[in-house]
Amino acid sequence: MRRLTILSVAYSLAPVGPDAVGGSEQVLTAMDRAIVAAGHRSIVVACAGSEVAGELVSFAAPPMGGRIDGRCRVGKQRAMRRLIGEVLAREHVDLVHMHGLDFYKTLPPPGVPVLATMHLPYFFYPWEALWPQRPDTWTHCVSQSQMRDCPPSHLMLPPIPNGVPVEALGRFRPRKCGYALMLARVCPEKGINMGLDAARLADVPMLLAGEVFPYESHQHYFQTEVVPRLNRQRRYVGPVGFARKRRLLAAARCLLIPSQVPETSSLVAMEAAACGTPVIAFRAGALPEVVEDGHTGILVDSTEEMADAIRRIGMIDPEACRETARRRFTVERMAAAYLERYQGLVGQQMTAAA
User: Fold this and answer.
1) Is 0.90 surpassed by the pTM of this model?
2) How far apart are CA 271 and CA 275, in angstroms?
3) Residues 6+ apart with CB under 8 A from 14
4) Domain ranges (residues) in the chain
5) CATH number of 5-163+330-353
6) Is residue 59 classed as helix, strand or coil in its secondary structure?
7) How confident is the model over 39-61, as pLDDT tens digits?
8) For residues 87 and 75, is the Cβ–Cβ distance under 8 A?
9) Which CATH class is domain 166-328?
């Protein structure tokens, strides 16, 4: 197998590392580790504050507490383009793997093959991301459901499902507590208000963990739709790193995912299964692919159904959740699929150039 140098490019506004919040950041972090573990070279372009197993090339992160607006985005994209160009000028890179929502703004000049993973629903991306004009640029999804929803494109490769560190998550097995848990970015599309309402209707305590990013719409949603629903029974505990996330998931009665947009995957549902915790989720996007209804969780269609499912979630066997995670959701399976794709795209370009 050819030894590769992979340049991974993060979303321009979020750091990567073991305690990363977003799905794309978690997948990039896992692949950076897997690339190094497999004996390849990993270079990561990401904002300052990132932690990587390979080599970090960083630019200044958005200011703490500052508002993220259009000017901030353009500045970070400009810095990222410059750094990508500098890396490609001084290093032999076999493939660039781009993860950010704004990847189409930072594409390198023609030459090295580019793989862009679409981590979000297709309607979050403009046409130039779905049909990139740069040669040797390929996209792919993270679930069959997401790919079915996407407009047809000859540039889109078959999906590679996400994975999580099942073994590390499954080691911690505390006694189950009575609380329901929500673990997500605090923003309108995650339906946090509906999860809080469901917990209230079920009359169970609930913990909400996640970050409120400095986007105006997110902060307005938190203040108007989330804060009024909080009390001694239903509490917001803020953002959490890997260790605390594992503790919260492992001890929870259940995880709630009342998403208001089609989920392209659900890392947190996979993490919950690895921890032996059932998931109660709306039938949004790929969630029916991840949550096995009646076996690892319950799929619902309304707040009232979610409340009823919370009351009867004890029917789900925690060991069935863990077994499913070991069989379907390992990060090793995901990494092997990506490494095979890297080799294939690099080999394809070498054959074409011969």
Assistant:
1) yes
2) 6
3) 20, 21, 22, 24, 25, 47
4) 5-163+330-353, 166-328
5) 3.40.50.2000
6) strand
7) 999 999 998 999 999 999 998 76
8) no
9) alpha beta
